[in-house]
Amino acid sequence: MSTVEKYTLKNGVEIPSIGFGTWQTPDGDTAISSVKAALEYGYRHIDTAAAYQNEQSVGKAIIESSVPREDIFVTSKLNNPDRGYDTTLKAFAKTLEELELDYLDLYLIHWPAAASQFENWKQINNDTWRAFEELYKAGKIKAIGVSNFKTHHLEELLKTAEIVPMVNQIEYHPGFRQQEIVDFCDEHEILIEAWSPLGTGKMLDNDILKEVAEKYATSVAQLCIRWCLQNAVLPLPKSVTPARIKQNLEINDFTISDEDLKMMNELPYIGGSGLDPDKISF
Ligand code: A2P
Fold it and tell me: Which residue's alpha carbon is at the smallest distance from atom 15 of ligand 1?
């Protein structure tokens, strides 16, 4: 079983430095068996969301696994239609119920309300965040954060926030480092989590990455995961395939050289989800 190091969030909460992503993992048997496999192989950090519609299965897998609840870091996210103060409180209760848990380790605003969809986007995000702060203070969540927030969303949130988000989960992979957001978050001690560290799989057949991976006798997936860690980012690779789930944790037997890290950091865009938080329609 692989062991995973931990990052420490600014409130002192420890978070395993690799999480198991479940976006696009079908609900039911697939979600249950892949989360169980992940726990068996040594993952202690599972990332889900109300919008993924697999919270129930993730919860079942946690219960059915032999790993005690308190040893697992569980993240979920507020679904976009539930933004706002009262609706957030209700949605959070529903998430706990679906997961069959009595607390979450981390809860994130999944996507910011953006100007393209809402005239009062600032107010919506601030109201949502107030509910997050309340749940945090009540001890129902160990850490709170946001996801897909760009710098301007964070700047507005921080104007009224009593508690600065501890995490910002963004799309992050070679060719798409969103450096302006990362720099802003570094300044405010907000840990960056990488969703789709493999670019939803689009990194895997890139010739440059293949060549670098070959040099380190590793796979492109492992290279991308290791690259996140060497950039002090927390990767959340997703897979439903046991051998890959296992492989994605085995990243400690090589170190990317400074030169290769720099080269990978400077790669131009080579694909990704194509989702822009300022332009989403969901
Ligand atoms: P699958 O789930 O069928 O195993 P990302 O985490 O960037 O969103 O990428 C997820 C995609 O990458 C999924 O299609 C997943 O396939 C695939 N994937 C995950 N890990 C590996 C791996 N080690 N080797 C090859 N493909 C992988």
Answer: 239
